[in-house]
């Protein structure tokens, strides 16, 4: 399979991935560099069903048919690859990270959908750190919460808190 051109700017990414054929070729070349294979059994004897835009494995087993999205972060999403690939490009190529609001504006989708996409992309690339603020955490000259004198009398005494009570 021939090499697929990489977009080098957000505008190029949006224009390039607007074509479904480009999206298809891009994902196929990245996911299966040695030819398409069944994600269930690993068999390379598959046939492309053009009318359904999916492949079918010639071996007899459940889940014989599969698409580009099967087994990826794009699976079970009603959004097309045109939106997913541009969002992935933005998250990966932005040095300081990209917010869901920025994805929402760039792709003309809801902010909730953009947040979902951003979160899924970051988790898949290991960009989300699961161990934030664990172990011994030290902060100099930092006050978290209210001043005790501004609190209600009940809340200002630690022994009256629910976590300080003896049961």
At a glance:
This protein has 167 residues and is mostly helical. It has helices spanning 10-17, 20-31, 81-93, 100-107, 111-124, 153-156, and strands at 46-49, 54-57, 65-66.
Q: What is the strand tally?
A: 3
Q: What distance separates the N and C termini?
A: 69 Å
Bulk shape = elongated
- Helix and strand string, N-terminal first? HHEEEHHHH
Please identify the structural class as seen in this structure: mainly alpha
| pLDDT averaged residue by residue | 80
Describe the structure.
- With 167 residues, this protein is mainly α.
- Helix content is 35%, strand content 6%.
- It has helices at residues 10-17, 20-31, 81-93, 100-107, 111-124, 153-156; strands at 46-49, 54-57, 65-66.
- It has a three-stranded antiparallel β-sheet with strand order 1-2-3, with no helix packed on it.
- α1 runs antiparallel to α3 (81-93), α3 (81-93) crosses α5 (111-124) and α4 packs across α5 (111-124).
Index terms:
167 residues, mainly alpha, three-stranded antiparallel β-sheet, elongated
